[in-house]
Amino acid sequence: MSLLVVGSVAYDSIITPQAAADEVLGGSATFFATAASHFTPVNLVAVVGDDFHHQDIAFLKDRKVSLEGLQTAPGKTFRWKGRYLENMNDRETLYTHLNVFETFKPELPLSYRNSPFVFLANIGPELQYAVMQQVTKPLFVAMDTMNFWISGAPEPLRKILSVVDGLIINDAEVKELSGESNIFVGARKIQAMGPSTLIIKKGEHGALLVHNQSYFYCPAYPVTLLYDPTGAGDTFAGGFMGYLAKIGKVDDASLRWAVVYGSALASYCVEAFGIAAIRDLSAVDIQKRVDALTAMTRLPA
Amino acid sequence: MSLLVVGSVAYDSIITPQAAADEVLGGSATFFATAASHFTPVNLVAVVGDDFHHQDIAFLKDRKVSLEGLQTAPGKTFRWKGRYLENMNDRETLYTHLNVFETFKPELPLSYRNSPFVFLANIGPELQYAVMQQVTKPLFVAMDTMNFWISGAPEPLRKILSVVDGLIINDAEVKELSGESNIFVGARKIQAMGPSTLIIKKGEHGALLVHNQSYFYCPAYPVTLLYDPTGAGDTFAGGFMGYLAKIGKVDDASLRWAVVYGSALASYCVEAFGIAAIRDLSAVDIQKRVDALTAMTRLPA
User: Fold this and answer.
1) Which residues contact B34 (CB under 8 A, 6 or more apart)?
2) I need a surface site. Which of A42, A243, B41, B167 has the fewest CB within 10 A?
3) Structural domain of A248
4) Residue B161 C-alpha, separation from nearest chain A C-alpha, in angstroms
């Protein structure tokens, strides 16, 4: 089944303790769509400037990502520059130039409106809500958010949360959004705000799925070379939603497997700058990490 | 099979943001033996002062813990007082009075020397080594350590590490001992120092078993009321080693299950002060949490 993503397309400049990269293709919708494209056709809604590179258009088309919803506006594409500290967990933003993204209004082409699977990447909650008003009877809608919106736009955030099925966020955001230091107590409070399904990303500590009353835990793949964490969260979401859309149903079993596929994709993402490590993955590559992850929690009878 | 533990027996005073307890029975050997006693007979080696309470002796005997190796020395029993900060992870030590523990020399009664399973709790590496010279052909020896010995006694620590089978430590200690920020790289370096089996405790993030080349991950049980973390690590070790000693073999499958049993015991430990929540557990109580933990990583075919 088809999968809609609304988010950002950007050029990222990244400095890590080991290396640096200038203006590589990034943005939440890019990472998401690239990861998800290994499972299912993706309908992308985003905006780029008139400086967007032809080869990046060609790449996305090649990955069978529909660009009918990609707006081109006069001006420059969204740019972000950041530096990772020695621990590779903390980072400082050197600049964020929203450029054409500043006035982005998501508009869904008619052909996108009946997408059964929808992912609202980390954009303003009002924009996320505007997308919901354009989709018709989706089967499963998941969203991302961040501390900026949790503290800066609590009311619009509550409004969008009340109408989505799933929320994919990290553990620090769970604590901030719920006001609870215990992640399990916090998860219950967030479920009461709307989403019955929470996917809580804990970086090197894996990911926790809370689905109604049930918990599922997937460890992180033992990555020994953490090269660039940028986009790992959106890549996780892309693998997760891509798998669900491919399977075409949302029950406890498929959600569990979706977390494993999301984790597998994210483990590749961090091994190179930008989308370099996920753009050309084969089904065998993905299966290899899925198998390794399932072996990590296997309990013999 | 029988299980030997060498460690401390103490009276702990604990302050948490919610409550406080004065002079409750604690110490690494106490937590370990109480947890392990649910699985197998335990041989305990430690020292107490002449102020040690009769009812605590009676309790340990009641749990089928052999006290033939419990020395009584003139003076006071080891006392520790600590305060947990709001996050319940960080704590400050208010005092440590070693008392009779200061001159503790582990001496194994003859009947203990052929214990097939041995746990060297967190005591000085020279004392741990002295124990190894008194045991005859053990099947599996595991040890604990801490930052104090990693930085303060690196040579004796290397010596004991080179002769044990397993090391049970937390993730921060893995980083400190290996000098590696990546836990998987660090684990390989520590395996090269001796122990082929590492059990890395990550608190609320679960526990990672590294056994030769294989990884196993067990999540933490979703505890919603973290009351007192004191002793959780030793309780984990007691459940882990107790299960192994009960099964009587050390292969990949039994090590994996042992991590699950250790996690189950530790999840109870933190729900009350001292050993209050683990002293009277039934087999059904333990199985309930083991089942919950296995359900958390179950992947339907």
Assistant:
1) B60, B63, B65, B235, B238, B275, B278, B279
2) B41
3) 3-295
4) 24
